[in-house]
Amino acid sequence: MRNVLLLSSGSKVALTRIVSKSTRKRGGILFACDSSKNVPTRHFSDAFYLLETNDWTEPLIDFCLQSSIGLIIPTRHSDLLPLAQARNAFEQAAITLALSSLETIQLCADKRNTAAFLERNHFPAPQSFTEEDYPKDRLFEKLPLISKPVRGFSSQGIRIYRNAHELPESL
Question: Distance between the two ends of the chain, CA-based, in angstroms?
Fold first, then answer.
C-alpha cells in the first residue's frame, strides 16, 4: 500500500504539496481528507475523501483498504487521541499512523500532565498551578500570570494578568 492520506487537510496547502510530491516519488498518490468538501487542499491533492461522520474509525479504515492507503498523516490536534485509541484496528488493517504513542499524546494533551512530567524529569519550565493549588487572595504574589486552558492549543483561550485588578472575580 503506497498511497497516503492527509487527515483533516483543511487549508494546509503547503503541507499537501510537500506530501504529494514525496508520495508521487514513491509511486503513490495523496488523498486529502476532510469533513468539508470546500477545503483548499482538495485542489492540491491527487484525490479527495469526504469524511462526514463523527464515528469515523471504521469508515476510514474501509476507505484506506479500498484505496490502498498505507499511511495516515493526521494534521489536527483533536484527531490525535481518537487515532491513538484506535491504533490496533489500523495496524490490523496494515495501515500505519504517523502518530506518537497514546501515552505521549495523553501527556501532551493536558498541560497539567506536561508540567508534572517536566518537573519530574528536571526540565526547566515556568511554574504551573491550578486555581485549587493557590488561594486567590495570594495570586497577586505571582503576578504577572499567564492563564491557559488545560486542554487548549494554538494559544486559544490564553489570558495575561499583569496586575490584581485584571484578575477575574470568578477565580
Answer: 53
